[in-house]
Every structure is written in C-alpha cells, then in structure tokens.
Amino acid sequence: MKQLFTHTLALLLVLALVASEASAQQFSKRKQYNSVGVTLNGMAYFGDITPKPSIPSFRAGATRPNVGLSITRRFAPRISGRASLSYGRITGDDAKAADQSDPDAKYRFTRNMNFRNDILELAATGVFDLIENRNNYIKRPDFVPYVFAGVGVIHHNPKGEDAQGNIVNLQPLKTEGQASAYGLTQFVIPFGAGARYKLNKSFDVGIELGFRKTFTDYLDDVSTNYVTDRNTLGSDAAKYFGFDITNGRPDTYSEANQAGGQRGKSNEKDWYSTLGISVNYILAPRVRNPKFR
C-alpha cells in the first residue's frame, strides 16, 4: 500500500510539472468556469478488521454508502481545483471477515471485534485532466480521464455492538489501555483517478475511484495489543470490547492467556476508499460584452 501511495504521488508530480509548462500559454479568464456536483459512492475500509490487513483484501459485504457535494473551478486547460464535503460509513466484523481455518487470520477470528464508523470529510484537491481543453466549456471534450490529489480533514467516531445489541462509542473506552484517547479529528490525503463524460453543454457524468491515506490506526478502534491486566480497563464496556468479546479459543487466545497478546497491527495506518458516480452541473460564466463608444 505504501508503494501504491508513493508511485501515485510521483505520477501526479510529473503530470503537474508537465501541466505547468503547458499552461504557461495564455488561458483566457473567459474560458474559466465553475461547476457543482453530487456524488454517490460505495465506501470501503482497509485495516485490522478485514480478511487481510492490506488493500487487496476487499469484502463487498462491508461496503456502505457515501454521499458528497463538490464545487470545482477550472483554472487552466488541464488543471482544476475542487472543494468537497462528503459523509459516509465504514464497517468491519471479524466474525464475517476472518477465516478461522487460516493460520494467519485465526487470531482475528478469535478477536471477534466489530465496528462501524461514520466519517465526515472536507477536502481540497487538484484535478489534472489527461486531455486538455483550450476552448470554452461548450466545446469541452466528450470524454476526459483525470487524476487528483490533495489534502483533507475528517471527523470520525468508531462504535461497536455489544452482546445486548447496544451501539457503544469506542473511543472513550480506551480499549487498549491507552493513557489518552485517540483523536476523532484527523488529516487525510485523498488521491485517485476518474473519468468524466459530457452529456450536454451543461452536464457531465463521471466515475471515480479515490483512496484516503490516514494518519491514524484507530478508525476501527484496533491497533496494538490486549492489556496485560483486564482489570485496568475502566468500565464494563471497556472490559467487554477490550477483552471479553473474544471467542476464547484455546488454540489462539482465550481470556486466560490473551493478556498482552496481539490485538491488531500497529505498523500500518488505516485507509478507506470510495468508488462511485457523480453528476456535475456547469455554471455558465457570464459573458461581458465589450463597450463601444
């Protein structure tokens, strides 16, 4: 996953350098325009509570909806800036994702953790079109593939379902015995690729795949090890999600021997992705007629 991120950013940097040279020629302000859009996506998560803790480990059953709004400004033949606000949910469940017969996954099946996390994201991204448009919006190309990258901030709040079916906020519980609770507001780096298709002079439809590199390993409330002493967890809910929720299989972990054992993998941060469609409406620029004397 780290190599994918590095190679993608390198590609975007090269494309941006090429674009800056191409955009050195005059691009009339009369050809610049804005558009507003809505998106409907499927949202997936990659972390500790997946079939395997890596990007290829995708479970369609855990996909949840994500909706968003955006406004885009075209600045140059290939370059646009986009601001977006989106809201969606990610989920994970060891009972459904982990294969108890897989030696590498058996401890996660025994862990028996579940979570859901509603994420609100605000992002600013640069969009680089692979096909340029030096004309106005009416004469834009019919089909345009593109890549994008930027920076964003998210607010998230992982929750879990207890044995009685109650939904419980996990962050305040400090389920791994943390000295202080992890932050619910985090920076992310969004990047990805997509394509737009011109329906008519005012509307585009598109498809886009985006990834979010985060700087937290707690989108799922799982990162390091079980506490060494169950009684150090501060509440009944903390003891349940931090210790008692395990299946207690003697060939992996049980409540008798899991203390201090592996609960997650802290060497990689959590990620999430979106894949979906968008509809964009172009706000036709006002044409100012020259004044004649």
Description:
The chain is mostly beta strands and 293 residues long. The chain is 14% helix and 39% strand. The protein is built from 4 helices and 10 strands; from the N terminus they run αβββααββββββαβ. Strands 1-2-3-4-5-8-9-10 form an 8-stranded antiparallel beta barrel. The longest helix is centred in the first third of the chain and has 21 residues. It is elongated, with a radius of gyration of 23 Å. The model has no long low-confidence stretch (mean pLDDT 87). Keywords: Signal. It comes from Hymenobacter perfusus.
Summarize the structure.
With 293 residues, the protein is mainly β.
Name some characteristics of this structure.
293 residues; mainly beta; Porin; 4 helices; elongated
Query: Counting H and I runs of at least 4 residues, what is the number of helices?
Result: 4
Distance from N terminus to C terminus (CA atoms, Å) equals 64 Å
The profile of the biggest β sheet is: 8 strands, antiparallel, barrel
Q: What name does the CATH topology carry? A: Porin
Low-confidence stretches: none
Note the overall shape.
elongated
Looking across the biggest beta sheet, what order are the strands in? 1-2-3-4-5-8-9-10
Reported CATH architecture: Beta Barrel
Number of structural units classed as domains: 1
Determine and state the CATH class. Answer: Mainly Beta
> What gyration radius follows from the Cα positions, in whole Å?
23 Å
Which bin fits the share of residues in helices? 10-25%
What is the SS-derived class? Answer: mainly beta
DSSP summary, beta strand count: 10
Whole-number mean pLDDT: 87
H/E element order = HEEEHHEEEEEEHE
Strand % is 35-45%
